[in-house]
């Protein structure tokens, strides 16, 4: 059961994704549409969020929302007593980060990253080898997600997202591996990375990569 407040869950989802519709906020947070709308209405009145309408409609954080979000995260972490555990698991994530980035590079470039050729995915055997390596790394990712969820339940969505993305990749959906804004494995990875940084109020270092 998620112990985070609806307000924190909504602001946190916007912080991680940048811009989300109500429908996607419902999916990301596990809240009902009424709960999400209630939070957004109050946050908009406080100038913490802003709705953008047009061809693509959705919500985004404003500066006041970023401040409120950071304060809520700090309060949650202090109340949970899980800071030391999250710090340990953050180090575990960072250790997995470089190997995962290498996998993504192999998916996108065949050969040397600097001089190789873009992967046009015409070589099925090559793609299947990279997918097999992702599948081999996946249990370690899920184990990390389980430990994070035990420390703070709101991390629970990541295991579901990684499982779903891997299943789509294995079913032949190429964009589910590393395409941005496609709920890809890479999307979930980037959000988890930012989630850890935000939760610990930690600046990105050389160990985190770029």
State the gist of this model:
The protein has helices at residues 6-17, 22-29, 33-45, 63-80, 83-108, 124-151, 157-170, 175-178, 185-199, and strands at 49-52, 58-61, 109-110, 117-118.
Strand order of the largest sheet: 1-2
- Uncertain ranges: none
Instruction: Provide mean pLDDT, rounded.
Output: 94
Report the structural category.
Answer: mainly alpha
Strand content: 5-15%
Helix-strand pattern: HHHEEHHEEHHHH
The span between the termini is: 33 Å
Task: Report the radius of gyration as a whole number of Å.
Answer: 18 Å
Shape: globular
Helix content estimate: 55-70%
Count of beta strands: 4
Q: What can you see in these coordinates?
A:
This protein has 210 residues and is mainly alpha-helical. It is built from nine helices and four strands; from the N terminus they run H-H-H-E-E-H-H-E-E-H-H-H-H. The strands form two sheets. A two-stranded antiparallel sheet has the order 1-2. A two-stranded antiparallel ribbon has the order 3-4. Helix 1 crosses helix 4. The two termini are 33 Å apart.
Could you outline the blueprint of secondary structure elements for this entry?
Layout: H1 6-17, H2 22-29, H3 33-45, E1 49-52, E2 58-61, H4 63-80, H5 83-108, E3 109-110, E4 117-118, H6 124-151, H7 157-170, H8 175-178, H9 185-199
Antiparallel strand pairs: 1-2, 3-4
Helix pairs in contact: 1-4, 5-6, 5-9, 6-7, 7-9
Brief descriptors of the model:
globular, 6% strand, two-stranded antiparallel sheet, 210 residues, two-stranded antiparallel ribbon, mainly alpha, 66% helix
